[in-house]
Amino acid sequence: MKTTKRVRQAKTLVLTQNAVLASIVVLMAFTPVGYLRLGAVEMTFIMIPVAVGAITLGEKSGAFLGLVFGVSSFIQCFGMSPFGAALLQINPIYTFIMCLVPRVLMGYFCGVIYKLLAKLKKGVAVIIASFSAPVINTILFIASLMIFFGKSDFILGMRAGTENLMAFLIAFVGLNGVMEIVTTTLIAPPVAFAVEKAVKKFK
């Protein structure tokens, strides 16, 4: 009976943590806290709670939080994000896929990377997993952008004067990609450790 009660309590705790982190993702998505927009360039800090969830709760929670992030990103395309709105007008289905799939995979693989590396050294695993979240998100987002919209007039217009695709991608990712990597790598690890410590005390 005691074991069953503990299992139930553990499941409730995980559900509560997921709900809290999902709420943070939504809060960040629809307040200035989550995005820094400079024209067509957008930098997001929402990967931080996704990475924290993936590290502390596992890859399934990472995927779930990535899904919440993705859905909020798609909602942003309805007037809140100029770049997203432009893509939505071109092809709403491709835009939906591009918003969701990279974010879900980012959260999932962040959790997997942490789980694999935690067997070697936990502290290093947390840092590398946090670093991997924005990197994976950027790579998958850019890849899907070029696959779905690379030949659209919108992207070709942005590429005007840049014949080299790699040069365009580097310029497009630019400072915002670097800042996403730096902020997530610096902030997610201490938050993840604090959450883990708090959960242990609660247990």
Would you mind describing this structure in some detail?
The protein is mainly alpha-helical. The protein has eight helices and two strands; from the N terminus they run αββααααααα. The protein has helices spanning 2-29, 47-57, 59-76, 82-90, 92-118, 122-149, 153-158, 165-202; strands at residues 35-38, 41-44. It has a two-stranded antiparallel sheet with strand order 1-2. α1 (2-29) packs antiparallel against α2. It is elongated and about 65 Å long.
**Fraction of residues in helix:** over 70%
**Distance N terminus to C terminus?**
17 Å
Which residues form runs of ≥5 with pLDDT under 50?
none
Question: How many whole angstroms does the radius of gyration measure?
Answer: 18 Å
Q: Approximately what portion of the residues adopt beta-strand conformation? A: under 5%
Largest sheet: 2 strands, antiparallel
Number of helices, counting only DSSP H or I runs of 4 residues or more: 8
Mean pLDDT rating: 88
Succession of helices and strands: HEEHHHHHHH
Order of neighbouring strands in the sheet with most strands: 1-2
Number of beta-strand segments: 2
Structural class: mainly alpha
Envelope shape: elongated
